[in-house]
Each structure stands twice: as structure tokens, then as C-alpha cells.
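Session log. Operator J.P. requested a structure for one protein chain; no other inputs attached. Running the standard single-chain path with C-alpha cell output.
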Amino acid sequence: MPHYNVFAIMECISVFDMLKIGIGPSSSHTLGPWRAAEQWIKKLKSTHKFHLVEKVTVNLYGSLSLTGKGHATDYAIMLGLSGENPETIPPENIKDIVNTINSNKTLVFGGEQPLSFNPETDIIFNKEFLPFHANGMSFTAHISGKKYTKKYYSIGGGFVVKKKLKSSKRKFEIKCTFPYPVDKGTELLEFCKILNKPISEVVLENETSINSEAHINSELKRIWDTMLECMYIGCHTEGTLPGGLNVRRRAFDMHKKLVGNKLYSNPVEWVYSIRDTEVKFRQIIKWVSCFALAVNEVNASLGRVVTAPTNGSAGVIPAVLMYYLVIENHDGNFEDVKKFLLVAGEIGSIFKKGATISAAMGGCQAEIGVSSAMAAGALCELLGGSPEQVLIAAEIAMEHHLGLTCDPIGGLVQVPCIERNAMGAIKAINAAELALDTNPENTKVPLDKVVSTMWETAKDMNTKYKETSEGGLAVGVHLSDC
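Structure written below.
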């Protein structure tokens, strides 16, 4: 696998870029390829080639190939080519659509025209890596004996880019329309100081420069509702996860022991029911773990989740936000949810700009580590932390995830991925508490230093520990052992 060079960009990353609604189990291996297929179809239409296409083939490279089957990349490709939307498709319809394509060897291209398509031969898994990114893919349209190919790269969190850099040392600047553009933590703190506002309000100023506050509120509520529904579904679904590892869903059993005989009929009633439960210290840890496990069990079963910043780490942020609402502040409301998500999104964007949120590039430190940092900082602000303490919380959370590898057994986002969300959530809460008791003048490791260190660690990490299932637990434990 080649060595990748980081490149500097000045980029506006919205909270809605960091928190996207999609289908599991992976933002880079499922949502990214799905969106890439959509982009490719849009390109074909804009160049008036779409209705001329006679056949399509897709090549997957690197990590997309090595763990693509376990991450349902082939499913994502078929669904994307079929014109399905990951934000709105009923998850229960996915298997039927895929099974129909496999059986009939036909898909409805872009949802408009039937094309012959055999997934076994038309989706090609290539183990070699493309030079720009570990998650490379190409789409080819066959038209009148000619081939028209476009390459795409899924760079983590559902982000997709098309072209590799002409020079890895060249710095590309993308003009940012935010009034307070931020690449680093120091810049964010400077804006907080100048404006005399907490981080959430600075982020909101940026967001309102491109969207109305009513739209922002509506979208943030939709994101939170999706997270809440995901936790609710996970806590009320019994059985075994798909994929061959025979992993039993644990959130159902944990939740049943915690709630006893309480009755409710929807997610909102469920939240109030938990608030009314007398919770002891040991149960707090169980509740947080239950919330996190619930989300990632839904994710592992091709359910709908929110990238936070990725699908594989989708359970940390909702679990910590639920902790705040049902344990710390029973009077918490949407304004608290809004602040939490704004701060979390901004911290995530700093890691994306300065390092990576792709496990295929940086190991699990880039997913669980970043999500834990996002949650820690967001919780710290809600608990009354200063902007400096918010960044300290994020730094502490990431510092204690540095070097964490990505070694999914069987290429599935299950073991150790699901439990890591619970651990990341607990660490986030601890990091926030430590930061609240920290004098910023005494901190030794600023956030920007841990971001750059995480990137250096990512570059030094052996390829087999970067979502290839060629090292760690992935080779220490075999499917046959399970």
C-alpha cells in the first residue's frame, strides 16, 4: 500500500457534512460508494450519456475490496446504481431489492431504465490500492463499444472526492464562505474570544451564513430524531446480527434488565420513562453502554443511522447526548441538543481537516477516537465548560485513543466495532469531567497538537491495521471460531 501525504485546505465543513443520515454498516464503505454511484449517474445525465448506456461495471480497490463484502459495499453499489436514496429508503426493503437484482441479473439504472447486471461479474473486487486513497473505486459505462470510466474515492464519513492531487506537496485553497472559517482549534478559540461567544454560537454564526436558522433547527431535529429512533429500535430488537459471526444483540437484554416492566409506545415516551427511573452509578455506565450498543447493532444490520462522524462510530455521540438528557439534566431540551450537535460537528471538522476520519487511512483512532473527542467537547460545553475547556475535553478523549487500530473480524462492523462505541462514549464523559476540573493555563497538550499527532500516527501505522482485516483480531479470531 502506498504512503499518503496530507494536503492543506481551507474548507467550509458544515455540521451537516459531519452528521449525515444514511444506511449502515459503514460511511466509507457503504454510504460513500452509494453516493459515488449517485454522483456518477448525475454526471452521465449532465453529459447526455445516461440513456445511451448499455452496460455498467464497477471496480473496487484497496480497503473497499478487502472488507467490502463485510461492509455491504456491493449492496451499496447496487442500491446507488438503482437510484435509491440512503436517507429515505425503508431499511426493510434493502434485502428484497438486492435479492431481486441477484436473481434477475438486472437492475433499473438510476431508477429509470433496466440494464443487464450480474453482481458477481460486474462488481469487481481488486486487492491493489489506488495511489490517492485506500478507498478507491471506478464506474464504467459501456456505450456503443466504447468505455467511459470515472474514478471516485470514499475518504470517510460519507465524503466522496473524484480527482487525485497533481502534487501531494501543493496546497489547494478552497474558498470558504463562512464568516469565521476554522481549520484549527486555536482559530476557533480566537473567534470565541473576539465575539465573546461559546463555541456553539460561533458555529451557529457560520451555519446561518449559508442557511436560515429555521432550516438549521429543522435539520438538526431530523438528525436527533434519527439518532433517537435508532437507539429505540436497537433497544427493542432481539436476535442475532447478520454476516456469519452470530453476534447476539446485547442492547435488547441490557435494556430489558434496566427498565423492568415500564410501558411506553414511542421514542419520546421512552426518554421520559428513563428520566423517571432511579439510576445508580453502576447503572449509569450500563445505560450509556446500552445506548451506544443499540445504535451500532442497528448499523450492523443495515439500519438507518447518522454518521458521527462515521457509521462505525455512530453510537458514541447519541449515547453521550442521551446521558446528558436522561442523567445530567432532566430539563434538557432541543436547545441543548442543538448546542451539542453544533459543537460536535465543529470538533469533527477540525480532525477531518487536520488529519482523517477514515479508518482505512488512520485506523480506528480516526473513527472512535474522533467521535469520542466530538462527544467530549460537546458535553463539556453543556456542562458549563469554557471554550478552552471544551477543546481540552476533545484533546483528552483523542489522546487516549491514539494508535487504536481497525481490525474488524470477517470485515464486519461488529467485533470489536460495536463494543468500541460503548468504550468511546464512557471515555468521552470522563474526558469532559476531567476538562471541567482543568485550568487551561496548565494544559500540556493542545487540541491542535493531538490532531497532528493522530495524523502522524496514522501515517506510521502498518497497513494491515487500517480496515483491511489482515491484522489484529481479524486474523487472531476466525469466522470458524465463532
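Operator note: Strands lie at 21-23, 55-61, 106-109, 113-116, 123-126, 136-143, 146-156, 159-161, 304-306.
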